[in-house]
Amino acid sequence: MTDNATQDTAWxxxxxxxxxxxxxxxxxxPMRFDANGRLEQDILDAYFRTGFxxxxxxxxxxxxxxxxxxxxxxxxxxxxxxxxxxDQHGRRxxxxxxxxxxxxxxxxxxxxxxxxxHPLLMMDSALNVYAHPDILRMVASINGPDFVPFHEAVFHxxxxxxxxxxWHQDGRTHWREDGxxxxxxxxxxxxxxxxMSVSWSHCTPDNCLWVMPGSHRRWLLTDDGEFPPITExxxxxxxxxxxxxxxxxxxxxxxxxxxxxxxxxxxxxMVLGYHNRASAIGAETTNxxxxxCPAPDRVKSIKYSEDYVLRxxxxxxxxxxxxxxxxxDETPFDYQGDYIGDPAWNEQxxxxxxxxxDEYWQRDITL
Length: 367
Ligand SMILES: O=C(O)CCC(=O)C(=O)O
Known about the structure:
26% of the residues lie in helices and 17% in strands. By secondary structure, it is α+β, with helices and mostly antiparallel strands. The chain has a single domain, classed as Sandwich (Jelly Rolls).
């Protein structure tokens, strides 16, 4: 056997074992709610036990199709270089600076796009998903009825070219000195919120996000610890398998990462996140999300004031109103949290929340 064939066989065996473990965790299925509109307790228990949950079939086909079509337009309009403002067709880029690009010459457009930040500004379909009533009922069940925003971005792992995401735990603020989490297994206590991957592609073991079940119970950076390199195929990790329309919710304290996508299928997932309000207000941290797109030198030290959180939270009622206009026959989610600003969505507000220098995402909330 050649080296490549041996590696392929080992990778296949790793994926098969991971899929088998993933299917045995008891943390996937459709969203189910009790008579009060709260996620069924067995779902919450599985989420708090394993550190993630896959909700199947959340989005209707029509929404998936709209997400795919709008994102493909955004991709097609990507700049050729990180500082550029012209796309591969010679057109002006509508959102320069929002694309995370690879500069490797092997990656021709649009495979050179690794991430698009802040899709609520550029895709109505993303704004509509942000206010999906079942998604927000799920969010309220985990983060409380006055939940607040985190950040949004679309990950694009091109076929055969997709860059890996290093193994990491996102949460930094709500750990004890001994590395145990402030969040209890019953969901009480300060939390780092969650990343929810909304998929409009087939997320397979080859291209998907992998998660280490139960890893949200200990911070690996405690006592000068380190995250493993993504070249390490972690024993016990599982693939977060998603079909178009599924949503995978990953506790931001969980160890997660993705291997390079060498498969023939691209992976596209939009990360939407929400926090528990009391976990956000007053937290002091290094914000890495309130920038046009991430970069190693883009960090700011911050303590989140109530005003900061209230102003960012306006995007929730705005998105609910935008969705109400798009789907007039649907019962909108009834948001119970406070916010500052008018909740009515219209073209003037679209311009306001995207105004250069004061975009809504300038108040994204890293925890
Ligand atoms: O989807 C991925 O590959 C990475 C997602 C991730 O790391 C995150 O949302 O923090």
